[in-house]
Amino acid sequence: MLDLLSDILTNLSMRGTIYFRTSFTKPWGVAVPKYENVARFHFAHRGSCLVRVEGVGEPVDLAQGDLVIIPHGAPHALYCGHTPERTIMPLDTVLQVSGFTGSGVLVHGGDEPQSETQLICGHFSFDPHARHILLERLPPVIHIRNYGESAGRWMEATLRMIGEESGGQKMGGDLIALKMSETIFAQAIRTFIEGSDAREWGLGAFADRNLSRALDAFHKAPADSWTVGTLARAAGMSRTSFAVQFQKAMDMTPIDYVTRWRMEIAKTVLLSPGSSLTDAAESAGYASDSAFARTFRKETGMSPAEFRKAEMSGSSQT
Length: 318
Known about the structure:
Helix content is 47%, strand content 21%. By secondary structure, the chain is α+β, with helices and mostly antiparallel strands.
């Protein structure tokens, strides 16, 4: 059985992708466009740069060993050197000018080789119809300093191996780097929700020992008959205290959280070949198809049948 964070990320169908490893020399700049259902990441394997994310006031100073994640795929620019307005070029242009073919190292920039910046850049994609407040409420940018060191020696070794394997010549290297990148994201999210900023973004229950115990119990058996009382018992708290603290930490009631996640589980079942309305209802903890359908419409704005038809139609057109 998966733990709380693992269950969420698995059900969101997270997939890691390394899209390039760089060797940038001053002056250089790359503008990365917006992408839907994607979280971008950049790890400074060597050297440093600035990262300017659209909608965020100050740029992130990405030092060697730092990791930055742009959770919602917002447009952003990475750059190093003077007059960034002149040196920042669209990603497609950089790829064309550099002659990058999709493998090996992306080499780009000016004539200052002593200023080399090596980045490991990639993204994490998510199922387009999957939703969870853990991802929805993450800030526009997450900057973790000395990431390898703060996450432990194993993570530092993992990051070094990704840097060596991605775009290299050894057989299986790219696959190894991809799978390791998924570990990077899970560890980064864990670092964030265990930190002091989680409550500010309405994710405080994940960092609270008692509240997270209740969430973990629910995620292990989402179809059980959960009430505020049973969740409170799992947390080792009184019903009233649990309800008040959960609302304060998450800006939603415990039952709201339960209902939203159950509907995400139901969506997955509805899109499974051969599944029925009853299968979806039972997976979400409903004994009655009609009660499930009413809740599903309230949460998604459409009936289960309408949702399945819309998703299947969209898939057939792509």
